[in-house]
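Human:
I keep going back and forth on a fold encoding question. Comparing notes only helps if you start from a blank page. Show me how you would write down a chain together with its backbone fold. Write it directly below this note and I will take it from there.

Assistant:
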Amino acid sequence: MTTFRKKPVEIEAVRCRDVLFEPYPSLPFWMQMAINGRRIVKVAPNVGLQIATLEGTMSAEPDDWIIRGVKGEIYPCKPDVFEATYEPVEDKQP
């Protein structure tokens, strides 16, 4: 058996609860476009979102993270998996 390590990639992510409760203009542009294109549909504030992914429609609960991957794909991620997999990237602006 061969062992592999995940390559370090940068992703963008937002908490599902922010999408549910924050004003639309404060959301990242990619999230606004996904909502406009109906790739992301709000179910109800305390229920979550429905996200159209390459694997079919997936549900996101308020504590989940919504990730925009390196190829623009959008998918939900449970908080424990997110914390084990990702860490914040320092701002690159001078």
Observations:
- The CA atoms of residues 17 and 62 lie 4 Å apart.
- Residues 12-85 form one domain.
